[in-house]
Backbone:
């Protein structure tokens, strides 16, 4: 708090987002937020610990109402935490108003000024800070170049497509070179095709400017595709933080496993402790046994997941060292790149179903659901197989 007055836009470090001491660009320490309206209290954020590295593309992923927007507003200073500390580049900014924090926010609705041209929208903040006119012109030109909107400088936002408006909002938020940029569902207003195109665009812009981005989304595909690291949030808490592949392949708990991609959740009991390769034998509820890496002792209850694309499905018994189960196809759904099979595992009394994704390398013959000769169809008896490294025990030991 004591250091807040020495800060002005002109004294910010030459390399935005980076801090000489190697401090995180953004750090939340035991941050909590309870909203009070009259006698009602809603706890939106319970206790958040988070450190975003300078220059990182960080995604905050979670379902509606889990506290994502609140977290961004706490970082930006539009809300103050009920408890805990917010740091930007190592400096405690708790209690510092938004306009004195070195971050900008892109809101979901972009909040562009409709009566101003694109260039004036982008220049707005610089004019307010009385940046010299020649410099404004240069910086607005550079940033419009970066977001590929040079030709639209004199148009008004209402005449632009959703994707173009998104770029204006991005340009306006980046033009004063903030230490970090916070984006709340930045692609939420776009149609699915444009959403995909803009993923690559946003990534490119972030790489070129090197500014720390925090991107809030409830779209797991978006978070996996865009983030250097992501945090999965539920009920005002972070459940897991890590690189996309880490979170997808090694989910921490049932919630993360189910929210980040499709997951088969299985429950069983350890029957034999880990062998020399680290694999214990787990008896699934209802009968079949599979291997999974865990140090849990025999008798321990474990939850495990196997991702649908790791499972091979075949009509004949596979000739591999993989774990295998028998089952019956209950349903098939053609999804374009893959077909999704729902298979009832034999010996579980119908209690255990596994979802399997199989790539559609072939083309279904007209009027059939078989994507190639011999591919499974409803009612078929099949084998399911996966190498034991793909059976991931949740909440490991
Ligand atoms: N200003 C407020 N006053 C009272 N309660 C609030 C306020 N803002 C948010 N909340 C509540 O806090 C919780 C978290 O809201 P928040 O907007 O942070 O969620 P979110 O993850 O951004 O959700 P969404 O994906 O729907 O945008 C919700 O229960 C919400 O109703
Ligand atoms: Mg929100």
Residues:
């Amino acid at each position: 708090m004591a250091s807040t007055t020495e800060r002005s836009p002109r004294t910010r470090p030459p390399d935005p987002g980076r801090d000489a001491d190697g401090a995180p660009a953004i750090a939340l320490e035991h941050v909590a937020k309870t909203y009070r309206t009259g006698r009602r209290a809603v706890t939106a954020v319970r206790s958040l610990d988070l450190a975003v590295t300078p220059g990182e593309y960080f995604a905050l992923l979670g379902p509606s109402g889990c506290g994502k927007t609140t977290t961004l507003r706490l970082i930006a200073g539009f809300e103050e935490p009920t408890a805990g500390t917010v740091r930007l580049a190592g400096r405690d900014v708790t209690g510092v108003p938004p306009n004195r924090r070195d971050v900008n926010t892109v809101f979901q609705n972009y909040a562009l000024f409709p009566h101003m041209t694109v260039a004036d929208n982008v220049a707005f903040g610089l004019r307010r800070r009385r940046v010299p006119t020649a410099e404004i012109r240069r910086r607005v030109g550079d940033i419009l170049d970066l977001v590929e909107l040079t030709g639209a400088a004199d148009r008004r936002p209402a005449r632009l497509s959703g994707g173009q408006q998104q770029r204006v909002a991005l340009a306006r938020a980046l033009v004063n070179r903030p230490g970090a940029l916070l984006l709340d569902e930045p692609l939420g207003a776009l149609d699915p095709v444009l959403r995909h195109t803009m993923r690559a665009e946003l990534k490119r812009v972030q790489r070129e400017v090197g500014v720390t981005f925090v991107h809030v989304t409830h779209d797991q595909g978006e978070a996996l595709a865009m983030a250097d690291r992501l945090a999965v949030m539920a009920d005002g808490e972070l459940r897991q933080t890590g690189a996309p592949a880490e979170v997808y392949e090694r989910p921490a708990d049932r919630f993360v496993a189910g929210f980040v991609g499709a997951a088969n959740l299985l429950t069983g009991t350890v029957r034999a402790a880990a062998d020399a390769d680290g694999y214990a034998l787990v008896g699934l509820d209802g009968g079949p046994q599979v291997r999974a890496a865990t140090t849990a002792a025999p008798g321990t209850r474990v939850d495990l997941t196997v991702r649908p694309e790791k499972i091979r499905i075949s009509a004949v018994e596979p000739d591999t060292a993989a774990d295998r189960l028998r089952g019956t196809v209950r349903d098939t759904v053609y999804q374009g790149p893959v077909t999704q099979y729902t298979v009832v595992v034999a010996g579980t009394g119908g209690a255990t179903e596994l979802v399997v994704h199989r790539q559609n390398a072939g083309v279904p013959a007209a009027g059939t659901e078989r994507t190639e000769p011999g591919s499974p169809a409803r009612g078929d008896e099949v084998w399911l197989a996966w190498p034991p490294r793909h059976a991931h025990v949740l909440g490991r030991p």
